[in-house]
Amino acid sequence: MAARVRELPSGPRKLDVSFDDARRGLEWRKWYGLARWKARPNGARWRCLVRDLFTCQMCGVIEADSSKLVADHKIPHRGDPTLFWDDDNLQCLCKPCHDADKQRAEAMQRGGGV
Q: Does residue 11 belong to any structural domain of this protein?
């Protein structure tokens, strides 16, 4: 019977992102905490949810509880402020669609599997 567990390779592994890219990535994460993003009624997230009538753009579910909705970036911004703040780049998604279907689709676009 073949071994079910194999040994891990030894030595350093190459990261997918450079240190500078990773450090920059931490900065844009702060944008999600800004009033410009989350404030009602003028924050980008809220404007997106209202514009899309609290309706998931993937599955069509209408959700009255806004905590169960995500203002998703259609084109991943990867720290680009123009893409991040562009209302036309946002769509309303329910959490299940965002956390599963959308992430799977983005992984396939990057050439990775799930």
A: no
The token duo for 76 is 């991943």
Give the total number of structural domains in the chain.
1
Residue-range definition of the domain harbouring residue 94:
19-109
Domain assignment present for 81: yes
- Which of 42, 88, 46, 90 has the alpha carbon at shortest distance from 67? 46
Q: What global pTM score does this model have?
A: 0.72
| Structure tokens given for 98 | 């965002």
Task: Print pLDDT tens along the chain (114 aa).
Answer: 666 776 766 666 655 556 566 655 578 899 999 999 999 999 999 999 999 999 999 999 999 999 999 999 999 998 999 999 999 999 999 999 999 988 888 887 777 655
In a domain, 96, yes or no: yes
The amino acid occupying position 9 is P
Contact 37, 46 (CB under 8 A): no
Residue 7 lies in a domain: no
**H helix intervals, 5-109:** 19-29, 35-38, 44-51, 81-85, 95-96, 103-109
